[in-house]
Design goal:
alpha/beta; Rossmann fold; UDP-galactose 4-epimerase, domain 1; 2 domains; five-stranded mixed sheet; 10 helices; globular; NAD(P)-bd_dom_sf; NAD
Length: 328
């Protein structure tokens, strides 16, 4: 099926979007990337045509949809820094909600009826259970999470009113890089633990900061669920098949279902790199939960999703290969 499709990957110059474009292209799918390159990298667009445009530009979207017959859209475009969203919430609503609304309107104008949406565990807010499943209330505690929850509501309303089929995939902590080290994770500024711990190990980044060592966890540091970026890509492809048989708007949580503490990630990175990683302990960050782990049973049962990288070591090793010789 994928080999006969043409998919528009919005945000395909970014971290997860570029891995999605690669994953699809390697399976014979025709890919077109749409990205404004505000945070993405032109060098990451190695598979398919690049349309440099902003989702909020209705005229640019109309030109893109008129020039191509897309079978489905995958939507990765978003501002995604929690602290920045608190400092400038209006910009986040304009980008994340306004951009999604503009895309849905363009899809409706041009008769494209299937969308896979990049959502986040931030829609849940403070976890009420050790493992978060899809029944957990959506109670975001920052504007970033709120914009993603609002975009999910847009998808539900568009399904009810216009028949748009959609799947929202709520990532926990995406990590890793492509197996050939052609693309990897590169943000400016970099706020994610895995790239920061590897850059500290290689001496290419600042000293590592650990935000709190007095959390109610076995070693006092926060616990997170890490899922390989290529496993996320696989879930997006499976979501396309799911929509064929299931109209409406759907949402699934994506994680390994196992949590690793910050100290465990540091130890694994030291083992992978062969380097000691010094770090400093800083005060806790407001809004950080002690434990954030996914229950992905529904995605496994409904989508048939089985993560290939189900341990921390191979995720870190793939990221390390890219960080040793980053291309952007």
């Amino acid at each position: 099926m994928l080999a006969r499709m043409h998919i528009l990957v919005c945000g395909g110059a970014g971290y997860i979007g570029s891995h999605m474009a690669r994953w699809l292209a390697l399976r014979g799918t025709r890919v077109t990337v749409l990205d404004n390159l505000s945070t993405g990298h032109r060098a990451a667009v190695q598979w398919g045509e690049l349309i440099e445009a902003d989702l909020r530009d209705a005229s640019a979207l109309d030109r893109a949809f008129a020039a191509h017959r897309f079978d489905a859209v995958m939507h990765f475009c978003a501002k995604s820094l929690v602290a920045e969203s608190v400092a400038d919430p209006l910009a986040y609503y304009e980008s994340n909600v306004g951009g999604t609304l503009s895309l849905l309107q363009a899809m409706r104008r041009h008769g494209v009826e299937r969308l896979v949406f990049s959502s986040t565990a931030a829609v849940f807010g403070h976890p009420m259970t050790d493992r978060i499943d899809e029944t957990h209330p959506l109670q975001p505690i920052n504007p970033y999470g709120a914009t993603k929850a609002m975009a999910e509501r847009l998808l539900a309303d568009a399904a009810a009113a216009h028949g748009l089929r959609s799947v929202a995939l709520r990532y926990f902590n995406a990590a890793g890089a492509s197996d050939d080290a052609s693309i990897g994770e590169s943000h400016h500024p970099e706020t994610h633990l895995v790239p920061n711990v590897l850059r500290a190990a290689l001496g290419t980044g600042p000293g590592l900061q650990v935000f709190g060592d007095d959390w109610p966890t076995p070693d006092g540091t926060c616990i997170r669920d890490y899922v390989h970026v290529d496993d996320l890509a696989q879930a997006h492809a499976l979501a396309l098949d799911y929509m064929d048989a299931h109209p409406g708007a759907h949402a699934f949580n994506l994680g390994n279902g196992a949590g690793f503490s910050v100290r465990e990630v540091i130890a694994a990175a030291e083992a992978a790199s062969g380097q000691a990683i010094p770090f400093s302990v800083q005060p806790r960050r407001a809004g950080d939960p002690a434990v954030l782990v996914a229950a992905s049973d529904l995605a496994r049962a409904a989508l048939g999703w089985t993560p290939v990288h189900n341990a921390l070591a191979p995720i870190l090793e793939s990221a390390l290969r890219w960080h040793r010789a980053p291309t952007f």
